Amino acid sequence: MADTVLVVEDEREIRDLLRRYLERAGFAARTTPSGAEAIRVLGDGGIDLVVLDLGLPDIDGLDVLAAAGGVPTVVLTARDSVEDRIRGLQHGADDYVTKPFSPTELVLGVQAVLHRLHGGATTTMAAAPGRVFSRYELVNRVRGYEFAGYERTIDSHVKNLRRKLATDPGEIIATVLGVGYRLVLGRDR
């Protein structure tokens, strides 16, 4: 069964273009120009990933991102400052693409995010519990290529993982100051 991607974009041409590219890549694509409608669709379930414009006419895209409730999200926006990128990643975006963009590159990014989430990245912390991984190493192991983004993106993802996995932030993933992170072994607790 194909993964379902929800495209939340107010510009019709971009929405239609992305639907065609996603469907050509084997995804089921749904689209909406409205943030409120996106939240409703997300609430119904069945969405595997969201491609989200932050500049929506009815509500701010960051509000939709917050309502996504852990559904993987690739932000696609004209907001291209470093602060905007950081804010998007801190709010839980899995990737951040700025306009103008290549539709092929965006689809490859969607595939990479879903590949990671479906278990494609098996050589990370779970494969070597107790070993310390630098942010740089984690980014490169998860992305599968030299990522031209920010190593601090890992901090945001670790924060989200901790929130989902445990009540005590260091219970499962420990921070090693000045180095990176490690998966805590049962005997290390």
Number of helices: 7
- Strand runs, count: 8
Structural class call reads alpha/beta
Q: List the helices and strands in order.
A: EHEHEHEHEHEHHEE
Q: Which fold does the CATH topology of the largest domain refer to?
A: Rossmann fold
What name goes with the CATH superfamily of the largest domain?
A: Response regulator
- Number of folding domains? 2
Give Rg in angstroms. 17 Å
Top-tier CATH class of the largest domain: Alpha Beta
Main sheet specs: 5 strands, parallel
Mean pLDDT over the full residue set:
84
If you had to describe this structure to a student in words, what would you say it looks like?
- With 189 residues, the protein is α/β, with parallel strands linked by helices.
- The chain folds into 2 domains: 1-119, 3-Layer(aba) Sandwich (Rossmann fold); 121-189, Orthogonal Bundle (Arc Repressor Mutant, subunit A).
- The chain is built from 7 helices and 8 strands.
- It has helices at residues 12-24, 35-44, 61-67, 82-90, 103-120, 135-143, 153-165, and strands at residues 4-8, 28-32, 49-52, 73-77, 95-98, 132-134, 173-176, 180-183.
- The strands form 2 sheets. It has a 5-stranded parallel β-sheet, sandwiched between helices. A 3-stranded antiparallel β-sheet has the order 6-8-7.
- Strand 7 and strand 8 form a beta hairpin.
- Helix 2 (35-44) runs parallel beside helix 3 (61-67).
- The model has no long low-confidence stretch (mean pLDDT 84).
